[in-house]
Amino acid sequence: MNSKVIIFDTTLRDGEQALQASLSVKEKLQIALSLEKSGIDIIEVGFPISSPGDFKSVETISKKIKNSRICSLARCVEKDIDAAGQAMSLSSAFRIHIFLATSTLHMESKLRKNFNEIIDMAVFSVKKALRYTDDIEFSCEDASRTTLDNLCRIIEKLINTGVKTINIPDTVGYSIPNELSYIIKNLFEKVPNIHKSVISVHCHDDLGMAVGNSISAIQAGARQIEGTINGIGERAGNTALEEVIMAIKVRKDILGVSTNIKHKEIYRTSQIVSQICNMPIPSNKAIVGSNAFSHSSGIHQDGILKNRKNYEIIEPSSIGLKEVKLNLTSRSGRAAVKYYMDKMGYKDSDYNINELYAAFLKLADKKGQVFDYDLEALAFINKQQENLEYYSLKFFSVQSISNGLSTASVKLLCGEKIYTESSTTSNGPVDAIYQALNRITNFPITLQKFQLVAKGKGKDALGQVDILVEYQQRKFHGIGLATDIIESSAQAMVNVLNNIWKIKQVNKKLNLLKNLKTH
Ligand code: KIV
Ligand code: ZN
Question: Which residue ranges does the record annotate as region Regulatory domain (predicted)?
Fold first, then answer.
């Protein structure tokens, strides 16, 4: 049996249909290009009959994608098949994906047809689609709740008609792993012409088993896995492709198969899909969650620093992430503190680890998470400077006009002096206030992340803003909390400015020491 597993991505079809707002043609193209770059074999780009917008995006993407095969969905309806064929006509290689329900429940209560009628409709539609391409995939919708006899009957007919890929969807996420593998194994045993086609599975995650089901289907002989990036999709979502792909790579010893995926592109693709689809990735999500490679407990951090394999089954760099992340919290041990100090270039003799660790624990208890720049401040500047908030927001005012410009004025206390500045921008009130603050401090910073979350409910909710900025190739975090979200945004930036100021004091002090030594 072939040891290559074909990866079929339906982020732009099954994934997109679950979003609050549909994506523009440009956004879909951006995702498709990213999927192509990751080495996805087949990209299902849409359901062209569903809307003129969908037709247009399938058409546009078909012209641009060269290294992945394009695919579009169609019901067993002539106009659907024509729309799919026409929308993809400019593509160099394309597939038409036809589906029809085969479970008794769907046949009787949704389609009101008997099984012979279903077979006739399916065969008729496949013949129509073969006029456009010889690459036809057929999905027996709700296959996991279809009787085995009916599945075998229709599949044999479809393969004889020319279907190259037979998809077995677990449409409602009902199956459990050994049940799906039982179905696949039986198809291989009972359908005489089964070897002329590729068997695919398409699992939904209603019981949280989409990835497990997909893996057990591979073990039973399936050689195409359908899913979406980050698992987005109808209801609880689809199989998270990045999880299946990494399971195939990491457990090659058991599964004995491989994919064409460029693993180093996984993280980037996941981020692009999350941002464009406005679907945040839970921090504990396997493979791509922000905590997937972060270690928090002191014992784990110590183990990781001794040998990464102690607590890491995947190297972060293998999915395109740069480094292992140790969260500095009150649970961290000396090893983690020392790791960050080493990373910033300090020798053991530059500071006293016992004093630093004691100060670190106090700060961690107060602050929750501590960052590398906090360690530097603890190690090298005195208590007074360390606790000093050099910058403080004394006043702000913003004015925004719909579809127009935003103007902000700020008064910022810098040490003992108050400075006033204002700024006007077309990028909204937060940008205006950030620009005004920047005019005062002149720090060359770039905002990398801005996150707003509501704390509490209703009128009394507070807006918490978390930001991440880059300053001289280092990352600084800032948090602001206020009822007014503009104020919390401004406070988050002032928090960042104070963190940068402390590091400037550290640098001043270290330079002073260096000069003293050289004189
Ligand atoms: O979940 C499903 O059954 C589908 C089919 C169209 C393949 O999305
Ligand atoms: Zn689906």
Answer: 392-519
Q: Give the Å distance between the CA of 239 and the centre of ligand 2.
A: 9
* Distance from Cα 76 to the centre of ligand 1, integer Å: 13
Do 202 and 335 sit in the same domain of this protein? Answer: no
In a domain, 513, yes or no: no
**CA dihedral sign of residues 384, 387, 390, 394:** negative
Q: Is residue 283 part of a domain?
A: no
**Which of ligand 1's atoms lies nearest the C-alpha of 73?**
6
Does residue 386 belong to any structural domain of this protein? no
- What 3-state class would DSSP assign to 93? coil
In the reported structure, the alpha carbon of residue 50 is separated from the centroid of ligand 1 by a whole-number distance in angstroms of: 15
The answer to whether position 382 is within a domain reads no
Residues 418, 441, single domain; the answer is yes
Beta carbon of 238 within 6 Å of any ligand 1 atom:
no
Contact 80 CB / ligand 1 (< 6 Å): no
**Probe target for ligand 1 pocket from 141, 165, 214, 224, with the most ligand atoms within 8 Å of CB:** 141
- Report the alpha-carbon distance of residue 489 to residue 17 in Å, rounded: 33
Residue 235 CA to ligand 2 centre (angstroms): 10
Q: Tokens at residue 173, please?
A: 């996420």
3-state secondary structure of 416: coil
Size of the chain in residues: 519
Same domain for 476 and 407? yes
DSSP code string of 469-483: EEETTEEEEEEEEES
pTM: 0.85
pLDDT (mean) for 374-383: 88
Residue ending a domain, choose from 252, 277, 302: 277
Residue nearest to atom 5 of ligand 1 (CA): 141
The mean pLDDT of 373-401, rounded to a whole number, is 88
Residue 41 CB less than 6 A away from ligand 1: no
99 C-beta closer than 6 A to ligand 1:
yes
Please, are residues 400 and 428 in contact by the beta-carbon 8 Å criterion? yes
pLDDT digits (tens, 9 = 90+) for 261-286: 999 999 999 999 999 999 999 999 99
Compute the average pLDDT of residues 174-194. Answer: 98
Residue 195 in marked binding region: no
Do 63 and 136 sit in the same domain of this protein? Answer: yes
- Indicate the residue among 251, 277, 303 that finishes a domain: 277
- Is 204 within any annotated ligand binding site? yes
- Rounded Cα gap, residues 293 and 120, in angstroms: 51
Domain with residue 432: its CATH number is 3.30.160.270
Instruction: Give the model confidence (pLDDT) of 38-63 as tens digits.
Output: 999 999 999 999 999 999 999 999 99
Task: For residue 406, give its domain range.
Answer: 391-508
